[in-house]
Specification:
OB fold (Dihydrolipoamide Acetyltransferase, E2P), mainly beta, two-stranded antiparallel sheet, globular, six-stranded mixed β-sheet, 127 residues
């Protein structure tokens, strides 16, 4: 499977829906990238510019995104998608260099802090 760049300028408004959480292995250990940096998952909603459609994707980053507020508008830098297939299941995982808050965008709750509990699975549907 190959990585595909995503043009975030065409996606519309992006918001932090669930605060960053550690991306974990099935055993509960935090996953790390090739350089050894811990990985984090943030749920980001994407509202299409035309219409009322909203999708939520889990975006993995290396290093904890700082200053995010659940419900607050965010900027996602260098977003990539990768389709996967494992043991008869398929899906798409998303990775970005950074997720940063958009200044003055507000938000719906307190600043996001790393919440307990694993979220090691990628977003995507079953085959």
């Amino acid at each position: 499977m190959e990585n595909k760049p995503i043009d975030v300028g065409r996606l519309g408004t992006m918001r932090c829906e669930i605060a960053p959480e550690p991306r974990t292995t099935p055993e509960g250990d935090q996953r790390r990238d090739r350089e050894g940096n811990p990985q984090w998952i943030t749920a980001v909603s994407v509202r299409q510019p035309e219409g009322r459609r909203v999708d939520t994707i889990d975006v993995t980053t290396s290093g904890l995104p700082q200053g995010l507020t659940e419900g607050g508008e965010v900027k996602v830098s260098n977003l990539w998608a990768r389709e996967w297939a494992i043991d008869g299941r398929t899906g798409t995982s998303y990775r970005a260099d950074a997720i940063t808050p958009v200044p003055g965008s507000g938000g719906g709750s307190a600043p996001a802090a790393a919440a307990p509990g694993p979220r090691g699975k990628s977003s995507g549907g079953d085959a």
